[in-house]
Design a protein that fits this description.
heterodimer; A: mainly alpha; 2 domains; 15 helices; B: 387 residues; alpha/beta; Rossmann fold; 15 strands; 42% helix
Chain lengths: 329, 387
């Protein structure tokens, strides 16, 4: 058993040569996926959007240690905002993303003012409640949102006026990947910054952080707003690429899935969020097509195994294996 | 990589371009529906009905082999529906899409089928407006306007004067409320109260009190089949509405797949709907017998009928137009045939099925409950298309 201290993780994420390696791997993986699975771009794009969403949750749960079950609130609001903006204001995708981000941030700010005062169970309950209220509003305001039929009629102009959304989904894939990439770069800088370190400190010991003068509450609200902004972007991406938003965007199951994906991959590690999403969605896709009725068992057992044997998630697997080999010697 | 992309694109274009060629080939049909989770019944009913159709009619049309490919989307999930349609169109090269249990799932593929010029046959999704989103949509199920208006007309003719509507508060419920209300008032009746009940609730006692207090002689109800209907009909009989002389008229609440679990309290409920598995015709008897033979545990319902007639329509379109999407849609318009549910045809403007709507009453038939038809309104089109 080896323990990795917070300092170590921060050091590695700040390190010189190690800095570029994961980025390079990410780009190589994207090209490989694009090349190897040209017929599955629709599914891969969904996965990329979900990665953006899970990474945003990682900032809140993994770094700040705030466990909520209502992350779909910002995702859904971002999706509806981008959809409505495309229909009524401008079909430009990048502007739509910005609108989704702003709405996600606003929702996160106002709900965060309340949520970040709560802890534990009451926080879980409140976050679920806020999402349910929003879902109810979306399904009642039929004239605006289309209700249970979904918001349809979203059409997009080419990205930057050049890249048109094509039938096979190539543009959508690279669009989603670029957004994910930019967000990851921003988050890498953010989590290594003093603000990121303060979040880790709050996660480990809020009372000590308060004692050394950190405004714990406002730090958490800020983290929640940043997470909400990114979740809003993820929602906007899904609205633009699917051209339809349904009230299912607020589903409790979505918030829960996001948490499962994050725990699976490794909370508190940006690439853990990506690995968790990749594994969860691939297993679901493959298992669901083999046995549509019992695939949840596979996910359940996988999660159990990871929680018991790899408490830090799949991303800690290489380190654990290396540790075991080292211990034997 | 560029070369591969170009090659891919060329193949895709070539497959589309060659689509119309009348060579003997395997024509693939992609069925997008829910095969997992709480709504898996839709996919199951679709798939079984298609298999019954294939068992009765073979899998060849004009020497072409028809192959059905099933894709699960796990419930109302437009993202998954669109990704599934993309995969089917690009990888599998399907020439027809079909299925679609939920409205958002159908709406999500509209831009795709417009681009690919591939017909999509809707087996269920019952919102009128779907067919306006693409000229490649054809629907073989029903719309709420199509069944709620005949329900209102029949109620008005059979003594109902004052009606209270009680619907689940979501789009289909609102559709049913508006359709029934406008048609009933046109017939000279009055709607005394419009009650919208939360979709999630299973406690209907307070609503029963409101229905009683409203002074209506009949309640028109719309709820999703299953637990909600069970709780509603239970409350209806327990709160003495039947004894108070308040009649019940509904639409699809007494669905064949859930009717037996409703139990004795369902007996006597009157509904207006387009299909009952107790419909008396040789075609229907042949259909239900074949279904019982292949799948002894299953029972035919409206979803089976949507898929069965959908499969028939696809066979017909392939027979008349091969794999040319535009020609196939033209061929489908105005097509009429005898279905196990009765005579049906495809309306050329709305591309929706025109059919008889039957007035049925729940009766006990041996060990099971059935919707026994005793009256009908002939050849009803989609009355909601122009709203």
């Amino acid at each position: 058993m080896i323990l990795i201290s917070t300092i170590d993780i921060v050091r590695t994420s700040l390190g010189g040569t190690g800095k570029l390696l994961p980025v390079a791997i990410l780009i190589i993986c994207a090209f490989a996926a694009f090349w190897l699975f040209p017929y599955d771009l629709g599914f891969l794009t969904q996965m990329l959007i979900m990665m953006v969403f899970v990474v945003s949750f990682d900032l809140i749960l993994g770094y700040a240690g705030v466990a909520t079950l209502g992350h779909a609130a910002m995702y859904g609001c971002g999706a509806y905002a981008a959809g409505l903006f495309a229909i009524h204001a401008s079909p430009d995708p990048l502007l739509g993303l910005a609108v989704g981000a702003v709405i996600g941030a606003l929702i996160a700010f106002f709900s965060g003012l309340l949520l970040m005062r709560a802890h534990g169970l009451s926080l879980l309950m409140l976050s679920i409640a806020i999402t349910m209220v929003l879902q109810e509003i979306a399904s009642k305001a039929r004239d605006v949102t289309g209700g249970a039929d979904g918001l349809s009629g979203i059409s997009m102009t080419p990205i930057l006026g050049v890249f048109e959304f094509d039938f096979i989904g190539k543009t959508a894939f690279w669009y989603a990947f670029s957004v994910l990439f930019i967000i990851l770069v921003v988050l890498r800088v953010l989590v290594a910054s003093p603000f990121g370190l303060a979040l880790r400190g709050i996660k480990d010991s809020p009372s000590r952080m308060r004692a050394i003068g950190t405004p714990v509450y406002w730090r958490k609200v800020t983290a929640y707003v940043i997470g909400g902004t990114i979740a809003g972007i993820a929602g906007a991406l899904s609205a633009q690429i699917t051209s339809l938003v349904s009230v299912e965007a607020f589903n409790f199951a979505l918030s829960a899935d996001v948490m499962v994906m994050l725990i699976l991959g490794g909370a508190g590690r940006l690439y853990g969020a990506l690995i968790g999403t990749l594994v969860f969605m691939t297993v679901r896709h493959v298992a669901a097509s083999i046995d549509p009725f019992n695939w949840l068992f596979v996910i359940g057992f996988m999660l159990l195994a990871v929680v018991f044997f790899l408490p830090d998630g799949l991303i800690s697997l290489p380190r654990r294996v290396a540790g075991m080999i080292g211990a034997r010697k | 990589m560029k070369r591969l992309c170009a090659g891919l694109l060329a193949t895709a274009i070539a497959t589309f371009a060659l689509g119309g060629a009348a060579l003997a080939e395997t024509i693939k049909v992609g069925v997008i529906a829910t095969f997992s989770g709480p709504n898996a019944i839709w996919g199951k009913q679709f798939k079984e009905a298609i298999q019954v159709y294939v068992a009765q009619h073979g899998n060849e049309v004009n020497g072409n082999t028809i192959e059905f490919i099933y894709k699960d989307v796990g419930g109302p999930n437009p993202d998954a529906s669109k990704a599934a349609a993309q995969e089917l169109l690009i990888r599998d090269g399907v020439k027809y899409l079909a299925g679609f249990d939920f409205t958002p799932n159908a709406l999500a593929v509209a831009p795709l089928i417009n681009q690919a010029k591939v017909p999509a046959i809707i087996f269920n999704a019952a919102t009128s407006a779907i067919n306006k989103q693409s000229k490649y949509f054809v629907r073989t199920s029903f719309t709420l306007w199509q069944v709620a208006v005949p329900a209102a007309q029949w109620a008005a003719k059979n003594g109902a004067k004052k009606v209270v509507t009680a619907v689940s508060d979501y789009n289909p419920g609102i559709d049913a409320e508006t359709a029934f209300g406008s048609a009933f008032e046109q017939q000279g009746g009055t709607i005394v109260e419009k009650i919208r009940m939360p979709l999630q609730t299973n406690d209907f006692a307070p609503f029963m009190q409101r229905i009683k207090n409203s002074g209506a002689d009949t309640v028109f109800a719309f709820l999703p089949a299953g637990p909600a209907t069970f709780a509603f009909t239970k409350a209806y009989s327990e709160n003495g509405l039947k004894e108070a002389g308040i009649g019940f008229i509904g639409t699809g609440e007494t669905d064949e797949t859930t009717i037996d679990s409703l139990g004795e309290q369902a007996v006597g409920l009157t509904t207006a709907y387009h299909y009952s598995d107790a419909h008396t015709s040789d075609l229907n008897r042949a259909f239900t017998a074949k279904l019982a033979e292949l799948f002894p545990k299953s029972r035919a319902n409206m979803a089976s009928m949507g898929a069965y007639d959908g499969a028939h329509l696809i066979y017909k379109m392939i027979e008349l137009a091969g794999t040319d999407g535009d020609k196939a849609i033209e061929a489908a318009k105005g097509l009429s045939w005898e279905s196990p549910r009765g005579p049906v045809s495809i309306d050329p403007t709305s591309r929706h099925v025109v059919q008889n709507v039957y007035i049925r009453r729940v009766e006990r038939d041996g060990g099971r409950l059935v919707n026994r038809e005793f009256d009908l309104v002939k050849s009803v089109p989609d009355l909601g298309f122009d709203r």
